[in-house]
Amino acid sequence: MSLLRSPLTLVVAFALVAVACGDDDSASGPGVVLMPGADGGSAMADASGTADATTPPPGSCTYPTATRDLAIGQTMPEFSWRSAIDENGVDAPFSMRDFHCNEAKYGDYKSLLIVAGAGWCPNCPGYTREVNDIRDQVAAEGGLVIYIEGQDERRNPADTAWANTYINSLIGEGAGSPGLRIGENDAEEPGWFFNQFSAVPSVFIVRRSDMVVSFHSGVNGLITPAGLPSKLRSLEPVIPMPNCTAADEEATEGANSMVETAPTIEAGSFMGGICTFGDVDFYKFETDGMWTIDLAFSHAAGDIDVFLLDPADSTMSLDMSVGETDSEQLTGTGSGTIAILAYPRDTATNTYTLTFTPAGAM
Ligand SMILES: [Ca+2]
Ligand SMILES: [Ca+2]
């Protein structure tokens, strides 16, 4: 099992979390881990922000206008890495501009499939292997895979040499394990890419013709790799409509969702919401005895899971409730911190009722 998702205190603003989950095809399928500085707010595009879809004429290539945000339906920002290593061990620097503009090199590709991970992320190896398992389908849909590692197993910034060794250890080398291996520390602007999302593994699909981000796991949900070929085929962004607004967010949470600033809850029930895609709600409670956390919500509107975080490492979970019904429940002893995650399933965010029952109130 796995789970983790909570801002870390990392070097730059690198705040990733690893999230765990079930095994179906939904967003709550594969496990993820959170990242530092997580800000899901930029993950969703303004519906009016679709980029110019014109393919540049031969010989003169202009990269589509982009903001600095990696958001679904928006142009992928024009970032690049000084080094990347292909499946054959050959150094092959990669840039979004080159991918879009270089017909001789990338003309056969229709899309970029970015799989972002970290050496410490427990669910990343399995996810990476599953992506490699569908390599023929990815190739058939014209997808180019790039594996980008943000940090090594000790949470140090990962360079490309490390990423190459790590990915090779997972899927091997050569034609049977296609894809560029990239370390975020070899980016022109190290750390920037990983600050654009909040969990690992994360997956993004970019349409080569106009570099529009057509799939964003932080918004569309982290589907299992088996679901990716159909996304590579359509390349049409699905921009979810939230079920709730900022007005539905719990009053106790405050402006952000960080482990370090999680509010302390008392016995009783209150309404909360995850109304920003990719957001995570954290709560602390202080008690000496037994306690129960109950979460009630509409599963039809969007799945929600709850995790008890390890006090020694808030990116890891000690326990979790990841059901497929309208409620989740955790029980335990002593003080703790929980993380509540919603899985948008293409269309939903969600509200919930959280009930905290410490022993004295039972
Ligand atoms: Ca919230
Ligand atoms: Ca659930």
Topology record:
Layout: E1 16-18, E2 33-35, E3 80-81, E4 94-95, H1 96-101, H2 103-106, E5 111-117, H3 124-133, H4 135-140, E6 143-149, H5 160-171, E7 180-183, E8 199-200, E9 202-207, E10 212-216, H6 217-220, H7 228-234, E11 268-274, E12 280-285, E13 290-296, E14 303-310, E15 313-321, E16 327-333, E17 336-343, E18 350-358
The structure holds calcium ion (2 copies).
Short recap of the structure:
The protein has 362 residues and is an alpha+beta fold. It contains 7 helices and 18 strands.
Description:
By secondary structure, the protein is α+β, with helices and mostly antiparallel strands. It is built from seven helices and 18 strands. It has helices at residues 96-101, 103-106, 124-133, 135-140, 160-171, 217-220, 228-234, and strands at 16-18, 33-35, 80-81, 94-95, 111-117, 143-149, 180-183, 199-200, 202-207, 212-216, 268-274, 280-285, 290-296, 303-310, 313-321, 327-333, 336-343, 350-358. The strands form five sheets. The protein has a five-stranded mixed sheet. A four-stranded antiparallel sheet has the order 11-18-13-16, with no helix packed on it. A hairpin with a 2-residue loop joins strand 14 and strand 15 (313-321).
